[in-house]
Structure formats: structure tokens, C-alpha cells
Amino acid sequence: MSELHALLEQCAQRGITLTLRNGRLEVDDPQGGLDETLDSSIEQARPSLSRLGQIVAGYPYLSKTPLPAIPDSPHGELPPLTRQQREFLTIAKQQPNRSEPFIPCMFRVRGDINPQHLRQALNSVLQHHEILRTRYPMVTRGRTRTEIRTDCAPPFHLVDIRHSPASLRNRESRDEFRSWFRTAYDPGYDIPLRALLMRMGDREWFFALAAHRIACDPPSMHLLLNEVLTWYNHFHAGKKDSVPPPQPPPIQFATYAFWQRGWERSAELREALDFWRHQLDGFPPVIKLPTDRPRSAEPTRQAGRHRFRLTPELRAGLRALADTCGTTPFHICLTAFSILLLRHGAEPRMVIGIETGHMQHQAEGLIGPFCNRLPLPLDLRGDPCFAQIVSRVRDLVTICAMHARVPFAQIRDSLHDGSTTESAAPLYQVFFGFEAPQPLPKVSGLTFIRESLKTISTSLDLALWVSDENGHYSCVFEYSRDLFEAVSAARFAERFTLLLEAALDDPRMPISRLPMLGLPEMRLLLHGWQAVPSPLPEWLATPEAAGTRVTDMVARTAAERPHVAAVREGKTVLNYARLQELSNALAHRLLDFNANRQRPVALCLTRGPFQVVAVLAVLKAGAPYVPLDPTWPRKRLLAMLAMTRPAVILTDISTNARLRASDTITLTLDPAHELAREGEPLPPEVSIFAGDAAYIMFTSGSTGTPKGVTMPHAALTNLIRHQIAHSLSAPRTLQFASLSFDVSFQEIFSTWGASGTLIMIDEETRNEPRLLLEYLRSEQIERLFVPFTTLQNLAESFRLTDPPIADLREVVVAGEALHITPALVRFFERHPAARLINQYGPTETHVACELSLKGSPNIWPVLPPIGTPIVDARAYVLDEHLQLAPIGVPGELYLGGEILARGYWGRPRLTAAQFLPDPFTRLPGGRIYRTGDLARFDARGRLRYLGRIDSQVNIKGYRVEVDEVEAVLGEHPEIAACAVMAVKAPEGTRLAAYVVSPRRTPESVRSWRGWLEARLPEFMIPHWFVRLSALPRTPTGKLDRSALPNPNNKDLVD
């Protein structure tokens, strides 16, 4: 498209307009610039030009249309306000103390300044430019008129602090500047210009000039500063060496304002707005970047800045690439910035704000708010190379520049449909600005050193400014401090530089392959933020303990504390000596059934003390156990038996009937009888190796066939060692989890390995929150492992009048994403001694990462991180090419180290697909597991879980993560629990919210919807709100999404 671009530019220079009407390309040559050669080129390019016309929806702006001459102002009529001025006037009236609309220029000056000459210079500039002497008083019914003053001088604040103590001078100067800059602006009384001159020393000064955007824009500010300094030179030189003063502009801003008012009423504006509607159609209203903090409904709008430079060598290479691509450094930098956003998680179709000036020749030298911001719709789909994106950007900017006269406010008001929140700017939240060199006139005897504003405000999420200065590019990342930390901005800068360097090396490289990681960041990801070994108890820290298995840990506790209670259920108590004897005896019996490392033992037993005795016995026999939950469908249980082909099934009287159709040997036992029988003092003489399987735990398969995860002793020993090192000594632990949920292993053996007592619980108490609360109190439970849904139900059931659970010290949440709800905050505020631990790990790894929440519960984040890898675990966030994703960038989470399962029992192909060679380790045989979870490292090295990769849904063309909607809805103080799910509907995929709340009125639904609308874009608001008395749960206590009702049930839906 470069030839087409050159042709359009040639037509624009000669005043030729190309228009597509009714599918026919028409050529308009009012100035006679069309010669035979150009006419032939247009004819040859006619098909391409017609296609380009279709891209811009057939509107007659394929080339820049020369603006008509600006007519003289109507006599006797007060000048109108332009659209930009009306916007800033509204801000000034509503927020008079807001400093953001002021454009500052600040300098440290060395030399001898004459304040009187500077004051004269400012007065002269005011006399040349009416816009700087204009006030906007309010008249009747809220209307505002313009009033051009003739008898005013600029507010010129002169301060002398050179005699202040040197140690206080900098602070005093900052305070003076802050007070001056933040002075309220009253548009009905004040003029929009102010100046500050501070004397810091005998030859040291600070000079600042600020103009309100109602009267100025950045290019005008540079013009204003040039004129001030030129006037200063004129007055300072005197008659002896006279310096000519600046010439007044040919017209005043009022004339331009009259012209723009007429243009805004023309058909041309309506056609241009149609162009923007077409261009922006289907683009996401919000660029969703990974942030350090969640977006607030009431942002502070405080901004930070990170400055960096592109070296002269990089600048030269960038300019050379621009020449090769037939474009400019602006396009190259904008391309790199858009790729940076894409690689940080933005969608391939994104809108970036850019700034453009649109003044005519006769308006040159005129100060005013001419600059306009445009929403540039960029399309980076298809993984093109860098050079291809440059061409796309160049052509898009060319097309959009043809419509740059439309004020952004009119584009916004025409297109904005409420699909962003009050905390996100409409149409674009990310901005790119490029400034050409702006030299200042030399002032005899003075040296000016530009200063930057330290504290600013912003309505944007992120902006990149690039300035061409003194042979290098000076860059600034401006960021919202509501969303980003300073370290993240620094990383944006480093990655932007690396992207540019890589693109210059190979502009034909696909953009997904351009490297963004520097060596320091790579070291953090591969080493600094991986697991750090923690101090172990002395008996686990010896060289001999390296081969310890969980069975050895239990044996050690039994030898040291034989009479301590190991298991308790009501009046039934097994001490460690009795636990050993019973498990030894059962292990010997299992060997009689040929149980071994290749022949597992299936357990289908009722919850109780004998169930955990059986688990220990199977491990002592050297066989893996296969937990079969009696509540599962019989067909599923039989399928699991067929896949594992166990040596024997252990059942009891109440579960035997579930497995009668199986041809596997079944040993039906009476738990009460088994607990009373004679034990065996010695365990079987069986060798248990690190790689031997300890259990086979079944999870759901995507094809409907369950997968048997085979977990080795080494991984589980590693987990229990970690748990003992970080947890309570001799804890009273509730055995809450079902045996078919891997957390049960953690409950059992981390308790026994630490000489604690395992407290059993029956199903009725386990499933009723009020009964569970009372049981935790009466049994003096110290440690509790539960899924989030159970903890939330428990917290909701806990009344303010209830006595706290006095002994509770540790609550471990696993199995589901943890949300810090108002109920959880209240619960842990009543239990200040209890620690909340968030653990993460799929069945294929058990626990991989954990985070202990610190501080007051009311400051805990709504979606806490999943923390850092446990000892001997490794966690990588990788892109689609299995390359490390930069810090903060989402990718798929892969886990490695000692925590991995062997694979899937009897399914080598599936194992090979999910367990891959570890590309980042030198250890032979190292593997990583592909979790299918979306995650990212935050700025502090903690992993943040972002949901399942396959849980992202497309709503009205926008990518939505239901976990985010669920988390925001769950913050509502009236909602006890909630779930959000994507549902197919005739009009497309829509979201359904399932809510548990004590309030059941139409007003409450409006309250929930309003809560979301204040925090999320329109397309993320659920279409249905379904009331439930409780959320359905699986036998393991997790949310059962498959059991959520159809939202089309009118009896349930609001």
C-alpha cells in the first residue's frame, strides 16, 4: 500500500480530491494540478483506490481536502466557544482546583534575569493574542459568554528564597510552585495564563509558565514560550543592539472560532462522524491490560512518570527503517507501542489515542486550543511482521488524518454507548504522543534547563510520549497510579526499547516472536522468583531424611509420642501406637491380595477413622490407593475400576452394593470390628521408592472419560515437608475433604507428620454451615482446609453475636479461586489469631504455590494472588511459543520441579501431551505440566490466577473472563455468594449471574446491576440475575457449575 500512500499524498499536495460515490471513483481538480502522468497513475490505481474507499465506507475523504479560507469575524458578535473550549470550561467550573487542564513549562535558569523585562515580555504577548486575555463569565440560565479584556496583565508571581537555609530551599521552592500551580482557576474572572519567577540564588532562578487548555495546546504553548523569550530579548537588548519583536498573527482565535462553528453545522461534519462510527465499529471499548491494582470505581487519577532515552544509535536505526518503509519515526514508534500493548494482553483490535493539530496557513502563529485527539483503531490480527504493521499504521493514520477536524468530544458523544465505566476513559484509555524537535530562541547570558512536573493527574491508564531532542529520543511513560506501580512502568520502558531493537534487527520477524525480555528480568523469572528452600525441622533436615516417606514420618511420631491421639471421632480415639498396629495388620492382609506398586488398592469406604487407617495401610503395602467416592455415579466408579484394575477393593457394609457389578476382588469390612481387632507391631518389609505411586486420583476429562492422576511418593513427601515447615506444631486438624479430593492427603499426613490430631466429621455436619461452626468450636479445631465456597458459606453463617472459634489458628483455602468477600472480612476480623492461606495446585501437582495473607482483613485484595512456588517447585508463565512471558503479562501457567505427578495411569499419549520437557532446566528428565490456567507474575513476584484459558468467552464481540465479573459482583455487601456463567441464547452468548442473597426484592437486583455498571463495561454486565437459596456444590465442596439452573426459567430470573 506504499505506492497508494504516495499517490494520495501527491494528490493532496496538488489540491486534488478523490471521492467514491455509488461505487464510482470521481476526481475533482479545482486547482488544475492534474497532469497527464498523475492522471495515468490514478487510472492504474483505480481498483485499489476503490477498495480503499470501501474501507472508509465510501465517504469522500480519500485524500486531504484543502480547508476553505477562514472568513472574517462577524461584526459586533461575541466570539463563540469551540467544542474543545466548551469541554475545558465545564471542567474548570466543576473542578476549579484541578490542575490537569493547565499546560506547564518549567526551567532552571542560570544567569542574571531582569524580572521587569520578563514582565514586559509577558504583557506584549498578551497584547498580541486575544485568547490569552479572554474571560468566560456566566450570563443568564447557565450560559457563558466570552469577554476579551484590554486592561489586564498576566498574574506574575515573583518570589525570592535565596536567603533561606540551603537545606530548606528545595523544599520551599517545591511548596511555592505547588501553591502557584494549584491555584484555583475561575474562568469568569481569571485570564488563562500565569507565570512564576523564583530566585534561588545570586545567579540561579526557577521560571514557570502555565496556560489553561481553554486557550492553549502543547504546540501553542511552545509558540507562546518562544514569543515570551523573543520579547525578552527585545526589551533586554535595548536600543543599542535592537532585537526585532515577534509579529502579531494575521487573525485572532475568535475568527477561527466563528469558522469552526459554521463547519460544525455543515453536512461535512455529519459525513465525517459517519466515517468514525464505521472505523470504530466492533472495536473493544476498553484496552484490558494486566494491572498491579484493580480498577476502582472512584479513581484518584494520580499519575506517575517514568523517563528513559533511546540512544542515538537506536534513533539513527529507527529513522533509517522509517525511510526504508516510506514512513516516519512517528509511525515506527506507534507500531512498537501497539505491539507492546498486544504482547501485554490487549486484544489485537485496539484503540489508541493520538494527537493531531489542524491549522490552516493563515492561522500559523496563532495561539489557541487547536490540537485534537483522535481514537485510532489499530488491527494487529494475524501475527504479521513488524514491517507489515508499520504499513498498516501509516495508511490508517493517513486515512484518519483526513477526518482530523472532527473534535474528539463530538466523536465521543456520537459513539459512546456507556460501554466503559466512569473509571475508564471513553473510546481510548491509552495514548501515544510524538513531538518533533522544539528549539528555544537563545537568550543572551541565560541558560535554560527544562524541568518536568513531578506530580500530575491523568484520566488515562497509560500514555507514551516520545520527543526528538538533541540527537536522541527522550521518552516518558505516563501511567495511572491507581492501576500501575512505578516498577511496572520501568518494565514497559525496557520492553519498548527491546522491541524496537529487535524490530530494527529483523523487521520481517512475526510480532509474536519479537523478544521483550532483558537478562535481569529473565533471571528473576527463572531464579529469583522460584522457590527458596525454607528451614525444616531438625529431624527432616538431616542427610538421612532425604529418603523419608510419609509412612516414615508417621512411624517416627508413633515412636516418639505413642499415646498422643492421632485420630478422633466422638468417643472413638486412636493413638499413634494403635494407628500403627492397625495399619500394619491391614497392610499385611493387602499383600495377600498381591497389592504392589503395579497393583493398586481401591478404597470405597464410609468417612471415619477406619478410612484413614486404610489409606496408611495401602501405602505401607507399597501400593497406590484409588479413592472411590460412594456418592459418585455407579457407572463412573466402574469405569475407574476398569482403568486401574486394582488388586482388591476395600468396601464396608454401606458401600459394597455400589460395586457389585465389578469383577475385581472385593474385601468388605466392618469398620467397628476392624478398629477393635488385634494389631500388628511391625509393618511389612516393603521398599518404597521415590518414584513409586502413592495414589491415583481421578479428575474429569475433556472427552468425558476421567483421568487417573498418578502421584509419586517424592512429590507428596515434598509437600508434607513444606507443610510441616510452614504450619502449626501438633495441630488439631479437621479431616474435612473427601478422600477423592487430593487435599485429604495433605490434611492427614501433614497432621500426623507434625504429631497432631486428625478430627473426623460426619457428612451432615460437614454440609450444614451452622452445625459446622459449632463443631469447630466444640472440637477446638486449630487448622481447617476448605474450598472457597465452603469458607464463604461458613463466613455467611457466622453471626456477629456468635462467639468466635477460639482455637482457630490456620485456614487453608484450595481447590477454587479465593475471593475476599465482605463476609470473609467480617469473619477474619472476629478471628484475628487465624491465618488465611491461599494455596493453588491442580491435581497433577497437588500444591504448587501458596500465599499467606498479611495485615488487616479489610485491606486484603478482592482477588488475592496465588503466591509463590513452594519448595522444590517451579512455575513458568509461557506464551504460545513456550517462551517466558514478561512480568505482568498473562500467559499459560506451567509447573515443574519435584511436585509433578508421574502422569495419567495407563494413558501414555495423554501424559506426553500434558507433561512436556522442561526447556529451562539442565537437570536430566526435567518436566513441566501444562495447567490450562491463565496466570501472570505481578510486580512483586507473586503469581496471579486469571482463570481457565477455556473460560474466556466472547460477549458481543468482546473477550470476557467470567472470573472477573464474579469477583466484582461478590464484593456487593448484600450478596452472600455468587457465580457467573456464559449461556447460549438466540441472540448470542450472554452472561448469567447466580446470586445468593437475603434480599429478594426488585430493588436489590437494580442495586446489583448498578454496582456492576459503576465498575465494569456494559458488555460485562450479566443479562440474567438468577436467585438461589444456595450454590450447588460437588462432593469435594467446590462449586458445581453443571448444576446451575437454566436462566430461561422465569420463576428464578430477574
Automatic annotation (TrEMBL):
PROSITE patterns, per this entry? AMP_BINDING
Q: Which residues form the Condensation domain?
A: 80-525
- GO cellular component terms listed in the entry, alphabetical order: cytoplasm
One BP annotation, GO: amino acid activation for nonribosomal peptide biosynthetic process
Check the record and name the CDD domains matching this protein: LCL_NRPS-like
This protein's superkingdom?
Bacteria
Q: What Pfam families does the entry give? A: AMP-binding (PF00501), AMP-binding_C (PF13193), Condensation (PF00668)
| Domain AMP-binding enzyme C-terminal, residue spans | 964-1038
Q: Which InterPro entries match?
A: AA_adenyl_dom, AMP-bd_C, AMP-bd_C_sf, AMP-binding_CS, AMP-dep_synth/lig_dom, CAT-like_dom_sf, Condensation_dom
Q: Which SUPFAM superfamilies match?
A: Acetyl-CoA synthetase-like, CoA-dependent acyltransferases
GO MF, one term, reads: catalytic activity
- Span of domain AMP-dependent synthetase/ligase: 555-905
Q: Which PANTHER family match?
A: FATTY ACID SYNTHASE, NONRIBOSOMAL PEPTIDE SYNTHETASE
The name of this protein is Amino acid adenylation domain-containing protein
Q: State the organism of origin.
A: Sulfidibacter corallicola
